[in-house]
Amino acid sequence: MYNYKMALTPEEVEILEGRHGEVLGKIMKTIVMYGDTFGASKLVPISSEYGHLVTSFGLSIMKPVYKLMDEIIDAGLLSKQKFTVDPRPLDFENVPSNFLQRTVFKIMYGKQEDYEAQLKKIGLLSDNGFTCTCYLDEVGNTPKMGDILSWAESSAVVYANSVLGARCNRNSGIIEMFGSILGKVPYFGLLTDEGRKANWVIEVRTSHLPEAQILGSAIGMKVMDDVPYIKGLTQHLGNELNKHVKDYLKDMGAATASNGAVGLYHIEDLTPEAKELGTKLIVDNPKIYVIDDKELNRVKESYPIMWKDINAKPKLCFIGCPHLSLEQMIQWTKEIKEALKAYNNHKVLIPTVMTASVSVIEEFKKYPEAKDLLNMGVNISYICPLMYMNNPLCGKMPVMTNSNKLRTYTTARYYTDSEIIEAITKGGSN
Ligand code: F3S
Question: CB under 8 Å to 140, separation ≥6 — which residues?
Fold first, then answer.
């Protein structure tokens, strides 16, 4: 038997020894080895109502995953909690693609249907449960303060930890599913009080509210996987966690997590733990990073441009990585409408796709803005733009985005929100 280091209860040892079935034994062994690697002292029960899985795509080459899922299903194991999953990779109806691209997608994601059937068997919450913003009200997988989670999607983990005050490590795919099946996770890192202390103080000294995605990028690239305590942001953002502020933090956090590896940030006078504990959350002698207008500009200018021809006319624009909230969809629609009017245009001049969860899209369709958006030629989809981009055919296309996560992992080029509005309503991008 595996020579474990952490403290296990007699029942956990039984599971590890395979006395509750061979497959559950292997799952326990993986989780215990994972915890031992990071110095976990014990396993703790997951307390969130739902789980969330990062692996949402049926890539044909992921054969070991499908075999593993079959083993779990054959052993009669179910996830102890129902779960949501990251966005689906394909939407031929709403995302432009040519014949060749569609053929490649069909081959690449040839296992999508089979994989979704496997997910259903082990505990998928619903057919609409495919989104990275599972924590939004419309989706309903919203952890409570102090909840222990087994999630892996980096943008959701950093949101749950920072904005909701839940506790979750930056797990990997599959490991998070094993945690949900066991109902337990190793106790280390961001699950502990000590691991949630900030070793960086970020001093925001900008003249106005920074672009969320650039501020997050600057912080992520500087602190990497450390915990930052952000001062000075509330003078621009206010100190009430309302929907607008939560959306800002959603986008900022996703950039900290993808341009660095941040799993938790605190914002003075705003996020729940910072409100409760204040500067007690900061370790002695923290590192300091000052962010002013010049620094934000430096960070933005440092992004490499991966387009073959940097003067190319964009072929596609993605807005909504992480997925948009209902309020953001309404706001974008209003702003695009106003800008089109100002430039005397009626439809967007660059094919544009806004992405959100199915639940948010369904809600949005009840608003007059949904018709406006359609009339302006903007498409709405539930996909993950990253999965659309990650193949040689789409990788060659000049795609623009306001997402720093999409920029980091693909050849898409980053533009601020206002640059995007101008480009799609007036034309041009440079
Ligand atoms: Fe979400 Fe996909 Fe972006 S999972 S954060 S839309 S890369």
Answer: 50, 359
Identify whether the C-beta of residue 283 lies closer than 8 Å to the C-beta of residue 199.
yes
Terminal Cα distance for the chain, rounded: 61
Say if 311 falls within a structural domain. Answer: no
Q: How many other CB atoms are found less than 10 A from the CB of residue 5?
A: 14
Domain hosting 96: range is 10-191
Residue 310 in domain: no
pLDDT tens per residue, range 333-344: 999 999 999 999
Q: Say if residue 270 is in the same domain as residue 165.
A: no
Residue in 55, 382, 384 to alter for ligand 1 test, most ligand atoms within 8 A of Cβ: 384
Q: What is the pTM of this model?
A: 0.97
Helix-helix angle 243-259:154-162, to 10 degrees: 130
Q: 3-state DSSP call for residue 360?
A: helix
DSSP E strand stretches across 82-231: 83-85, 184-186, 198-204, 228-231
* H/E run at residue 266: strand 266-267
How confident is the model over 278-333, as pLDDT tens digits?
999 999 999 999 999 999 999 999 999 999 999 999 999 999 999 999 999 999 99
CA–centroid distance, residue 109 to ligand 1 (Å): 17
Q: Name the closest-CA residue to atom 2, ligand 1.
A: 384
- The DSSP result for 142-163, as a single string, is -PPTT-B-----HHHHHHHHHT
Q: Tell me how far apart the alpha carbons of residues 359 and 348 are, in angstroms, rounded to a whole number.
A: 25
What is the rounded CA–CA span in Å between residue 46 and residue 168?
10
| Beta-carbon-side half-sphere exposure of residue 419 (alpha carbons within 13 Å) | 15
Is the Cβ atom of 421 under 6 angstroms away from ligand 1?
no
Residues 54 and 171 in one domain: yes
The alpha carbon of 43 and the centre of ligand 1 are apart by a number of angstroms equal to: 29
